[in-house]
Write a structure and sequence with these properties.
Elements lengths: L3 H13 L16 E5 L5 H8 L7 E5 L11 H11 L5 E7 L9 H10 L4 H9 L4 H5 L5 H13 L10 E6 L6 E5 L1 H8 L1
């Protein structure tokens, strides 16, 4: 059963009683930061709290596993928009331990697609067009390696200003503890 009616009913009350007022801010991040993180439910409130961020402080881009899977895909475009149009001048890539993307088995996921009604012929057509569906769905083995790969893609992107530090971190989704993998400021100093 869909949650839509419950959400819309709550929203009507939320707006009617002006419960939005504590969240009013501009579209520009106060702390001039854009964060790429995972869509994991444990991070929704924990990540901003663990970083001392509140509404209006940062831009948050989410993708499964905090991955930049394509240098010219929607995730990278969002980061570039945050930097060039929304005044972000720092990028944080924050993965987390116990990430579901580390356990993705593409074959099992394709079987689930078929079980839920995706026609096998469609899957064959996708593969026939040159798309490697198994590789596209594949997760990662090590979160630290995955975060550093995304950091590298962003840091070395031909459209990313070299003056923007790109940091890599991994969070414990139970405690909020952040482990630093790559300090973007140190990387900038090395490049000079």
């Amino acid at each position: 059963m869909s949650s839509l009616k419950e959400i819309l009913d709550f929203n009507e009350s939320f707006v009617k009683f002006k419960q939005y007022e504590p969240f009013v801010t501009s579209k520009f991040p106060n702390k001039k930061i854009v964060i790429l993180t995972c869509m994991d439910t444990r991070l929704v409130e924990l990540l901003p709290k663990a970083m001392n961020m509140k509404n209006g402080d940062v831009k948050i881009v989410k993708s499964a596993g905090a991955q930049v899977s394509h240098p010219f895909g929607a995730v990278m475009r969002s980061i570039l928009v945050a930097v060039y149009e929304l005044k972000a001048d720092e990028v944080y890539v924050i993965g987390h331990y116990d990430c579901g993307m580390s356990a993705i088995e593409p074959g099992q996921m394709i079987n689930k697609m078929i079980e839920r009604g995706v026609n096998k012929d469609i899957i064959n057509i996708v593969n026939y067009t040159g798309m490697d569906l198994v590789e596209w769905l594949r997760g990662f083995g090590d979160v630290s390696t995955s975060v550093l790969k995304s950091v590298d893609i962003i840091r070395n992107h031909p459209l990313m200003p070299k003056s923007v530090p790109v940091h890599g971190l991994v969070m414990d989704p139970g405690t909020g503890k952040l482990d630093l993998l790559s300090d973007g400021e140190e990387n900038l100093a090395e490049d000079q």
